[in-house]
């Protein structure tokens, strides 16, 4: 029996990825939804990544996404991110807070928007999610990258990972043939280096033709291109306004599996209407169902007082005291 031959890095090492590091990086990927107006229902827009970076001596922890997903502060205020614990049904929905930090640039194709410190801590303790460190990639390392991985919520559903080859490196974009699906704009494009995972690009779109082979591939915004803009802007980290209120997204997150009882208690829904919300394929978990219910309650001119009364009936006294008066009608109206 002949001896086994020594293993060879036939792909020059570009395909070896440390699984633990990749899983840790994938945990930071979230699904971004925006409250649609005037329907007041959550609509999936794309994906994002919880990242951290020191800029001008200040630590920024924020969600990085494409400017097509969130283009301004007004949209960011209506947005929330859904994180999942991979391999389980555990989810956590967090509100975006542009009043802490917000930076968006259409020319550079990116948006950074903060979440609250308490949500960052909860993501760590409940879902084992740590912000991914953003790093500028050296010129030498960039041209050694042969393979990339894209973590994405496939068509707004479960989280998937696709792998592909790098076709072309441009000043602004990286072109690759890793598969992508509808709703994955803003997804991180990872590459492996020294057994660790880094973001080389942020996925933008597909259907791009390469200059050399004329093949149709996908493209992402080169992370160094984002860094050029990030370091060119002053950084101002603010404390969110101390308002004793909860937005519909925060109420929905806290209601969880109580949303059906709350809906009935408001007097604005019957059993059939609640069933329609429950079976809507766009509302995969109780948090999204609760947010959708609150949107419908708003459309039906449900009052702040009516919702507060329903919340109190089921023991949600803290929520009842902090219902957003600017979002729901008041009895005086």
UniProtKB/TrEMBL annotation:
The record's annotation in CDD domains points to: Death
Name of the molecule in the record: Uncharacterized protein
Query: Could you tell me which species this protein originates from?
Result: Paramuricea clavata (Red gorgonian)
């Amino acid at each position: 029996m002949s001896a086994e031959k020594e293993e060879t890095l036939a792909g020059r090492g570009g395909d070896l990825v440390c699984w633990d590091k990749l899983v840790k990086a994938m945990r930071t990927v979230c699904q971004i939804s925006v409250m649609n107006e005037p329907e007041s229902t959550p609509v999936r827009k794309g994906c994002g990544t919880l990242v951290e970076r020191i800029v001008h001596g200040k630590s920024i922890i924020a969600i990085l996404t494409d400017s097509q997903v969130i283009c301004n502060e007004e949209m960011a205020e209506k947005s929330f991110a859904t994180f999942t614990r991979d391999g389980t049904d555990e989810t956590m929905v967090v509100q975006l807070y542009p009043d802490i930090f917000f930076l968006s640039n259409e020319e550079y194709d990116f948006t950074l928007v903060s979440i609250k410190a308490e949500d960052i801590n909860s993501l760590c303790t409940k879902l084992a999610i740590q912000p991914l460190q953003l790093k500028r990639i050296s010129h030498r390392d960039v041209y050694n990258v042969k393979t990339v991985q894209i973590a994405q919520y496939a068509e707004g559903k479960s989280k998937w990972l696709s792998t592909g080859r790098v076709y072309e490196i441009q000043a602004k974009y990286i072109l690759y043939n890793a598969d992508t699906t509808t709703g994955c704009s803003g997804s991180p494009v990872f590459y492996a280096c020294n057994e660790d995972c880094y973001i080389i690009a942020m996925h933008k779109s597909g259907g791009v033709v390469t200059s050399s082979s004329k093949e149709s591939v996908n493209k992402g915004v080169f992370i160094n291109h984002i860094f050029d803009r990030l370091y060119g802007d002053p950084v101002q980290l603010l404390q969110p306004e101390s308002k004793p209120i909860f937005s519909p997204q925060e109420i929905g997150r806290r209601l969880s599996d109580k949303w059906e009882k709350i809906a009935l208690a408001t007097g604005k829904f019957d059993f059939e209407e609640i069933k329609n919300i429950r079976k809507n394929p766009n509302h995969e978990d109780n948090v999204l169902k609760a947010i959708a219910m609150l949107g419908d309650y708003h459309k039906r001119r449900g009052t702040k007082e009516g919702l507060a009364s329903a919340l109190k009936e089921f023991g949600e006294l803290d929520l009842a005291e902090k219902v957003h008066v600017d979002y729901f009608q008041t009895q005086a109206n």
